[in-house]
Amino acid sequence: MASMPFSFAVLLDRPDIWRGDSLSRAGAPTIPCGFPGLDAELPGRGWPAGALTEILPAHEGIGELRLLGPALAGLSKRGLRLVWIAPPHLPYAPALAAAGIDVANLVIVRTASPKETLWAAEQALASNACGAVLAWPQGAKYAELRRLQIAAEGGRAPAFLFRVPEAASESSPAPLRIALGTSDGGLAVRVLKRRGAPLAQPILLPPMPPAVRGKNHHVDRHPAAPAAARDFSARLVHA
């Protein structure tokens, strides 16, 4: 039987192959970010589902909620469970509601150690029962992050890991890594790593209106009151 002629042009046109000078066009599922400028710069035009996304804010509360708000709101409105593992503070319910997130679908997991945080994140991702998993691991090693990436690949949920800015110099198996800063009162989103060509310039999100800005901190910076007193209906569990 005569062999079929080989064509590099046909090979490079396959959707599961990406070139180093362009964004990946692979058919992996994504979730729109809700910001057209950012979606346009991400492979698949959104947050990768079934994969890790690392978010490295310059400081806590810089705008994490605003960045993830549209995606989390869409998932929660579909009745999907949002699992937050070891957040540094109790999430501020009015800010979540203002972002369109249904707190009835929010599960907060408290852990006693960094090891428990990683274990809980791996279990949540492997369960395939979550719409999204958000975790705040401390001092995670590459091998531990690799376990989370493998667990994420087995499901359909996006996984967001919040890490300190110093982690930017460390290797990571996460296919998407983003650093957050500020610029002219807005949010500067710097893509550190993506499947495709590097992004030289940060993506600037405009400032929020003053009336909204104060309500949209990522976490409550005040001492946490009992959940019932705060009209906060999220489920609180311990790993």
Counting structural domains, the number is: 1
| Strand neighbour order, sheet with most strands | 10-9-8-3-7-6-4-5-11
- What's the CATH class, please? Alpha Beta
The end-to-end span amounts to: 60 Å
Can you offer a commentary on this structure?
- This protein is an alpha/beta fold.
- The protein has a single domain, classed as P-loop containing nucleotide triphosphate hydrolases (Rossmann fold), CATH 3.40.50.
- It is 25% helix and 22% strand.
- The strands form 2 sheets. Strands 10-9-8-3-7-6-4-5-11 form a 9-stranded mixed β-sheet, sandwiched between helices.
- Helix 5 (114-127) packs parallel to helix 6.
- Mean pLDDT is 82; it is low at 210-233.
Describe, in short, the structure shown:
With 239 residues, the protein is α/β, with parallel strands linked by helices.
